[in-house]
Amino acid sequence: MDRKKDEQDKTGLSLNPDLRQCYTEDARGKGSDAAKTLLDGQILRRDVIKWGLLTAGGIIAPVGGLIGCGGNRSSSPSPVPEKQKLWVIKAENAKPGTSSWRNTHPARAGEIQGFASLTSVNRGEDIAIFVDTAEPTYEIEVFRMGWYQGEGGRAMMPSVIRTGTKQSIPVPQPHTHLLECQWDDPYTLHIPKSSDPTDWASGVYIVKLTGRPSGKQSYVSFVVRDDERPSDLLFQSSVTTYAAYNAWGGWSLYTDPQAYAVSFNRPYQQGFGAGEFFMWEYNMVRFLEREGYDVTYWTDVDTHTRGQFLPSYKGFLSVGHDEYWSWQMRDNVEAARDSGVSLGFFGANPAFFQIRFQPDSLSGLIPNRTVVCYKNGNLDPASDKKNPPEIRRLTTTEFRLSPVNRPEDAMVGVMYRSFFDQKEDMVVEDASSWVFENTGLRDGDHLPGLLGYEADQMFGNAPPGTKRIAHSPYRDFFGASLASDMVFYTWPSGSTVVATGSMQWSWGLDDFDGNRRHSGVLPIAGVQQATRNILRRFGATMPAHISLLQNCGDCLEIG
Predict the structure, then answer these.
(1) Where do the structural domains in the chain lie, given as residue ranges?
(2) What's this model's pTM, rounded to 2 decimal places?
(3) Closest CA to 61 of 20, 93, 27, 12
(4) Which of 279, 450, 454, 478 lies most in the core, judged by the most C-beta atoms within 10 Å?
């Protein structure tokens, strides 16, 4: 069997002509062996599997579109019209859950660690899981994260035992300090695509890795999309910010000196491999799925590459820490707002730094695996005044600064002001607002512990008619007395944009505290109801009106 598999892996596969054309120039410039292989029109099956270039139909194509050769030519199909299946999340969360996804023996010294070949994968496609461990064997378990009667996750398949591989640790590139792993022997996971949309439903997935015999554990995270199923709400997982803060191997956008480029081809140091998911996003996921909202998921890499899908949704949800955006992300989200899609910024510091995406540096084959951000316009070659405006505007500095000149509050309504370590309270200013309807809250009421650790305020670039409904004083890390603002506005298209102005809003929705950082912050009924009010204003179908019957026509129970 091993011999047969080896022969299959050596099989040459024909290359999509668009992909070959896209990378011809890059191959000649870099001299990459892998890229040169593309020029011959053949590539080995084992390399295709390794780098996730094989689609469900067996056609080699770039994941996430063709970036960097004549613009953003997406290879994604147009959305397929389909009757909306409002019942999917309710039906999915009615399945048996488990708490065995929890990490009970963390690999604090990197005894076992891994990463995924993609940040997201569509139903019907493959994703590769790379693992580094000196253990003789290790176990792979895959879970979809949600509510599941409070268990928080569902096991998706029987566990798999594999032989451990001690992988090489990369050396940082001299100027950018980019660290990119070139690991071998991945586990290739196929995501089924049956007619049942709850069969590997769109969601955030956690792979738990357990070394044997030590029992040390870590995570790998990825998102499953469902590009063909429209839903009321789209939840964005902010993986570019995970990557920015990821100091695995000693370099991140926050080390001193900093890296100027960071790769998704390495384990996340945060969250024992889960990035910032459990810190900032999971509480909102649990709330949405416990309530039964019709929601699907993708990452901010998809916001960059799949803007044509955004008008399929009623509401776009940015949750927690969503700091790093590309120019295309900003364009795509604003275009969605202009077409009537409502935006919910349930966090703080969104769209603060501009980034650029590049392919992986080792093969040049996989788009959007590298995040570039100098964080200082004077250091970024794109800022050179000799460059044309369409290049200079991509300078990786703060969006509000020249030469980008797109202040965040022009889209969000507020923008980042400062940070602090202590927990502070959000303070209601206008309890008469529709946001606080049926919450029982009054002007001056405090929402304990929900302000922090970063906070936004109004600066003067917000759209006309922006309303402030919470105004919350705090003392920042530097001792300055400041205040955070929660706002909303209505755009001429009819869309509503809401920004909480605080990163910790979702902590008031659910009692999960796996990072033990929420201590003392409990679910707040008024915050839960305010969130329901916001989602209702976005046009989301109220969960009480969604039937579990899969053959129920429009799947609504009105009455």
Answers:
(1) 2-51
(2) 0.86
(3) 20
(4) 450
